[in-house]
Amino acid sequence: MKQTRVMGKSPETLEEELREAGEIIRNGGLVAFPTETVYGLGANALNSEAVKDIFVAKGRPQDNPLIVHISSRDQLEDLVESISPEAELLMEAFWPGPLTILFAKSEAVPFETTAGLTTVAVRMPDHPVALGLIDYSGCSIAAPSANTSGKPSPTKAEHVIEDLDGKVDAIIDGGATGVGLESTVIDLSGEIPMILRPGGVTVEQLLEVLPVVEYDLALKDETLSPKSPGQKYRHYSPKAKLELYCGDEDKVMEAVKSRRSELEAEGQRVGILTVDEHISSYESDFKVSMGRQDNHEEIARNLFDSLRAFDSFDIDVILGEGFEESGIGKAIMNRLHKASGGNVRYL
Ligand code: TXA
Ligand code: MG
Fold first, then answer.
1. What is the pTM of this model?
2. Using 50, 70 and 90 to split pLDDT, how confident is the model at 218?
3. Which of 20, 114, 169, 319 has the fewest CB atoms within 10 Å, counting from its CB?
4. How far is the CA of 176 from the centre of ligand 1 (A)?
């Protein structure tokens, strides 16, 4: 057990604490910190021993590579072999921000960070605490989401404390994260830029900068092996089983209601994951709204916190409503789909 320090509680001491947290990273320790997407669990990206500790703390599968976080464009040169014109355009448009770009890795990046791959994923987060921590540590920071592997990603310091207290050196509380789900991961190595994981930057936004962008086929066809190793695992899962209902609004609500009766008749504790417009029409005691139906940014921001909320109700089955897959809806549905382990009904 480590003695985990919780930092960031008071604005007056934040700067000093960031300096100390930077020192922890520089000395090979682990620090969880907020980004604009979700909280990350950071270690010096070029220190293979420190990086190994991340996998242990999270219980992360060994073959799942980490994203390296930088605070300035100069740091990229040390990490990668070369930078393509497409990458330049994307960095110009979206950094700092929720876009992770794959590059051929330089020798400086250990295989522990990339889980044996010859590519390295890099992003510049858009959050003053994350950028300050990178600056104070004086190195680039490898950081997966700061949750126990398999659980919903943390969007509040409390989520990180729940999962990682006693396993990391420090947790910096920066309040709730803004985007609420992870960065988009893009691979530029082929002829067509490929989205390996949908996230905070949408395909519509990417298409304003690049002429063509496609989704990795494995995002649609589960029989194919995904290029982003993380996409193959059951993920984002609350303790309860999640069943997802998508399509016509009225049919979805009807289906959720009748399924709830059926499960409760079997003696199961049922939770309902819904939106502001629908919540009052469900009689359940265990219901959570993620926000307004048409406000996908709000839904994204509340998604993981809502999934975690059911854990404290001791629910057996969550019945959830799906969303339109346009804009950030694509990433919302990717996370819900995974959280449900593919248990999705289209009506
Ligand atoms: O928003 C985010 O990206 C957050 C914050 C903390 O920055 N980080 C995050 O990390 O979501 P993680 O480890 O939970 O997810 C990283 C994803 C995984 O699906 C992983 O497989 C993929 O990025 N990835 C990392 N390096 C890769 C590589 N070299 N090739 C393909 N996929 C890679
Ligand atoms: Mg993750």
1. 0.97
2. confident
3. 20
4. 20
